[in-house]
Design a protein that fits this description.
Two copies of one chain form a homodimer. Chain A is elongated and about 60 Å long. The N terminus of chain A is likely disordered. Chain A is of the alpha+beta class and 228 residues long. The termini of chain A are far apart. Chains A and B meet through helix 1 and strand 5 of A and helix 1 and strand 5 of B. The structure holds a DNA duplex (30 and 30 nucleotides).
DNA sequence: TGGCTAAGTGTTAATTTTACACTAATTAAT
DNA sequence: ATTAATTAGTGTAAAATTAACACTTAGCCA
């Protein structure tokens, strides 16, 4: 798939696609089926077409891999060491995406090779400089989740406060006080009580909430700053 | 200087070089001497050589223009719209630099055209998409200055607390309480009293301080977070 | 020596953050 | 039907931080 005609200079995009599943933060990786780095996990990515905006190219990677169009996707950083790609000069721009693991299925046909959700804790290396890219994106996620309401992108539309707290705890790799966390979140007035319960467990059922995007936009216009 | 052989795909870097002079935040711009955008101000930038790391390329722009090697320089974002450059497909990575205006002089020979410090408030357009790049970098500067001790990069090595406060006020475009500002800064223990005064004005002289980089590094290693 | 100018300085009230432990609601097992 | 197990849900008080606010000091100049 890599066309040598690109190789004097080529642009690519690579996506760190975060998902939260079974209390663990995971990223969507593809297993390389050829050299170099044959057999290693790599970030999904592609070369940028000459007639394609950089941002669009990242959208395309994501859509081809997951079938999803409307996901949170943001540029992170560009990696441009001369020798970062063994086959030639390729500068790559990293994007990070936040998806709800629940509401999509991988499109297997789109890739020659295996794709899978891998817990971030299990990883210690990736193909190319992708591990460094991952670290950069993870750092950004940690910062972002504290000052922007991006965590909700990783949860199903309706969630409990415990779900939300677990998400924060696993991303920030820390534990939070339950009462203080709830107070803080609820005081922001960004969650709407959907008047339903998460039931079916051998314990007290939990209220479900939904994040109110519109309210957030309105508040933000007035200078409100989200912060956990 | 622009070589058509680059033009199918080319990389460039553009630098937003901030300086603080006479109570105003300025950026270093060059006047274009040819089409397109002939006569407009533009960000200093250049094409990336095939054998040159992206980051190094930004360093090179800065050094060629200012003669300075050791300045604060950090990658910001990459701009990759298909039509952003009228002459072909050029993806550019923006960097922002913080320099002490006092301790350097422009190298006029390095450029065919004029270079100058322009107050940021005076600008409403630039060549190419450079005004958008400027806005992005300025936003980042505003964020950065509040949570990282980068403001000192813009001041001479020795400065008064009033100097520092004026810097913050002009970057953040707000006014700050003098006593609270001083308390906060001094409480961080990052400034050392150089036991000298800024004299020669028709008023009480002011103490001079110096930022202690090493102390900051040590504190940060212990989890200290800079915040104004 | 008096006037001008910016430097320097503390206290109090308000707000925010932290620490902390029991009761409530449901399911599963007996 | 009762009990055990499990997580949901809740309030208060102390501590820390932030915000508001005005006068005295030191040097220059006329």
């Amino acid at each position: 798939m890599i066309d040598t005609q690109f190789f004097n200079f080529a642009f690519s995009v690579d996506c760190v696609i975060f998902g939260f599943d079974q209390d663990a933060l995971k990223i969507l990786l593809i297993r390389r089926g050829q050299k170099p780095f044959d057999g290693d996990w790599a970030l999904p990515g592609n070369l940028v077409f000459p007639n394609e905006d950089l941002d669009f190219s990242a959208t395309r990677v994501l859509e081809e891999l997951t079938g999803m169009k409307k996901v949170f996707l943001e540029q992170v950083q560009t990696f441009g060491k001369v020798d970062r790609h063994p086959l030639g000069r390729v500068i790559t721009t990293a994007y990070f995406a936040l998806v709800k693991v629940s509401d999509f299925s991988l499109i297997p046909s789109s890739l020659a090779s295996e794709a899978a959700w891998v817990p971030i804790r299990d990883l210690d290396h990736l193909a190319f400089d992708h591990f460094e890219i991952l670290r950069t994106c993870y750092e950004l996620l940690k910062k972002s989740i504290r000052v922007r309401p991006v965590g909700f992108e990783l949860l199903p539309p309706e969630f409990t406060l415990t779900d939300l707290q677990l998400l924060y705890e696993s991303i920030l790799e820390t534990s939070l006080d339950k009462r203080n966390f709830r107070k803080k979140i609820l005081a922001m007035n960004l969650l709407v009580d959907v008047k339903a319960m998460k039931r079916g467990f051998a314990h007290r059922p939990a209220k479900l909430y939904r994040f109110d995007e519109d309210k957030y936009k309105a508040f933000r216009a007035e200078g409100f700053v989200f912060e956990i």
